């Protein structure tokens, strides 16, 4: 039977659910980039620019699935990022620094992806405005002091990443923006392919998040009695 309740909600977030959601989002992001490269766009560098060059970490979910990448420039041979920004997140441990870096990289990946879609004239050139700028109303500062985001709702920075009310609202925004991105890719004539939402949101982001306003986003899961 379907479980329609939110697994992440105000005052209700477990380490397991947090890690599982991050895995779902990052693996879905890679899937969309690969599909964009295959769907005959203006250039075939979405995975290289928005994923490979930025994602610098390892995420393992509670079922043992994992995704990892050491950020590199895509050259042959590649030049890898070697600083302390590589993070590891597993159900057994997620610390302040790792979560902060994970969030920072997600912001960077989303901004880069939406900017590239706009530059490639994907029918309507307002991906960044609608999917990134209008939704990511927080600032994330990583261990290097670099900042990304929009507005001044809240600053996620060293020592302040585990404000659970703000974190849950941000997780809601991440899922919400991902749904909107995949919906828009399906609606626009470019890219050539469709079913982005079905493949890389509905089928893969199988958790629901409720924000502080009571809004819920995500997909139901099947629970075996």
Task: State the gist of this model.
By secondary structure, the protein is α/β, with parallel strands linked by helices. The chain has helices at residues 15-38, 46-52, 96-119, 127-133, 164-187, 196-202; strands at 2-3, 57-60, 66-69, 87-89, 139-141, 147-149, 155-156, 208-210, 216-218, 221-222. The protein is built from six helices and ten strands, in the order E-H-H-E-E-E-H-H-E-E-E-H-H-E-E-E.
Structure classification: alpha/beta
- Percentage of residues in DSSP E strands: 5-15%
Integer-rounded radius of gyration: 17 Å
Biggest β-sheet, characterized?
3 strands, mixed
Low-confidence stretches: none
Q: Which properties best describe this structure?
A:
three-stranded mixed sheet; alpha/beta; 10 strands; 225 residues; single chain
Protein architecture, described:
- By secondary structure, this protein is an alpha/beta fold.
- It contains 6 helices and 10 strands, in the order E-H-H-E-E-E-H-H-E-E-E-H-H-E-E-E.
- It has helices at residues 15-38, 46-52, 96-119, 127-133, 164-187, 196-202, and strands at residues 2-3, 57-60, 66-69, 87-89, 139-141, 147-149, 155-156, 208-210, 216-218, 221-222.
- The strands form 4 sheets. The protein has a 3-stranded mixed β-sheet with strand order 3-2-4, with helices on one face.
- The longest helix is centred in the first third of the chain and has 24 residues, at 15-38.
- The mean pLDDT is 89.
């Amino acid at each position: 039977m379907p479980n329609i309740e939110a697994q992440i909600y105000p005052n209700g977030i477990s380490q397991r659910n947090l890690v599982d959601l991050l895995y779902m989002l990052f693996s879905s992001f890679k899937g969309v980039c690969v599909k964009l490269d295959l769907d005959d766009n203006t250039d075939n560098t979405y995975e290289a620019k928005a994923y490979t060059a930025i994602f610098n970490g390892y995420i393992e979910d509670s079922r043992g699935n994992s995704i990892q990448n050491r950020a590199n420039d895509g050259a042959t041979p590649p030049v890898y990022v070697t600083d302390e920004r590589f993070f590891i997140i597993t159900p057994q441990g997620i610390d302040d620094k790792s979560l902060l870096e994970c969030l920072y990289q997600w912001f960077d990946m989303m901004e880069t992806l939406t900017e590239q879609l706009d530059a490639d004239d994907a029918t309507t050139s307002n991906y960044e405005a609608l999917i990134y700028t209008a939704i990511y109303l927080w600032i994330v500062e990583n261990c290097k002091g670099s900042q990304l985001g929009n507005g001044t709702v809240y600053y996620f920075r060293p020592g302040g990443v585990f404000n659970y009310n703000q974190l849950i609202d941000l997780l809601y925004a991440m899922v919400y923006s991902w749904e909107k991105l995949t919906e828009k890719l399906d609606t626009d004539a470019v890219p050539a392919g469709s079913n982005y939402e079905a493949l890389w949101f509905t089928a893969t982001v199988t958790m629901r998040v409720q924000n502080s306003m009571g809004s819920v986003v995500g997909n139901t899961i099947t629970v075996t009695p």
